[in-house]
Specification:
With 131 residues, this protein is an all-alpha fold. It is built from seven helices and no strands. Bound molecules: zinc ion.
Length: 131
C-alpha cells in the first residue's frame, strides 16, 4: 500500500487535510472528506464514491470502464487539482474550498464535462454497444 508520508521524512502519516485517517493515495484522492467534497461538487456518481478501494489505480480503472474518455480525462484533471490543493495546504498553508478546487479544474478545459451529466446525457460504454 502506497503510504505518501514515507516521502515526508519525520512527519506522522495522518492526513493533514482532515486529520482523521492515514494519508494513503486513495485517501487523499477519494476517501478524504475534502476530496469527496470536490468530487461531489462536480456531481461524480455516488456509486464511484461509495465503494471502498485499497489502491487508487483500481478505483480509477473501475471508473474508466464506465465513463467515456472525456469524462475520465476530466476526472484525472480534478484529481490532479485535489493533489495540488493538498500540497498547497501542506507546503504553503493555503486552505482551499472544494468549489475553488473544482472551478480551477474546470477552467483548465474549455468544454469541461460535468460529471452529473453522466446520468442524463452521457451514454455508458455498455449502453453504446446495445444500441
Ligand atoms: Zn483526509
Amino acid at each position: 500500500m502506497c503510504k505518501i508520508s514515507s516521502f515526508r521524512d519525520g512527519l506522522n502519516d495522518t492526513c493533514l487535510k482532515c486529520g482523521n485517517e492515514r494519508e494513503t493515495l486513495i485517501h487523499v484522492m477519494k476517501d478524504c472528506p475534502m476530496a469527496q467534497a470536490v468530487l461531489k461538487f462536480g456531481g461524480l456518481n455516488n456509486k464511484f464514491l461509495a465503494r471502498s478501494y485499497l489502491r487508487c489505480i483500481d478505483w480509477i480503472e473501475d471508473i474508466a470502464r464506465e465513463l467515456d474518455n472525456k469524462a475520465v480525462s476530466n476526472l484525472i484533471t480534478i484529481l490532479w487539482n485535489v493533489w495540488n490543493s493538498r500540497n498547497n495546504r501542506i507546503f504553503k498553508g493555503v486552505e482551499e474550498d472544494a468549489k475553488v478546487t473544482w472551478e480551477r479544474a474546470a477552467a483548465l478545459s474549455k468544454d469541461f464535462r460535468i460529471f452529473n451529466m453522466l446520468e442524463n446525457l452521457m451514454v455508458s460504454k455498455k449502453a453504446e454497444v446495445k444500441t
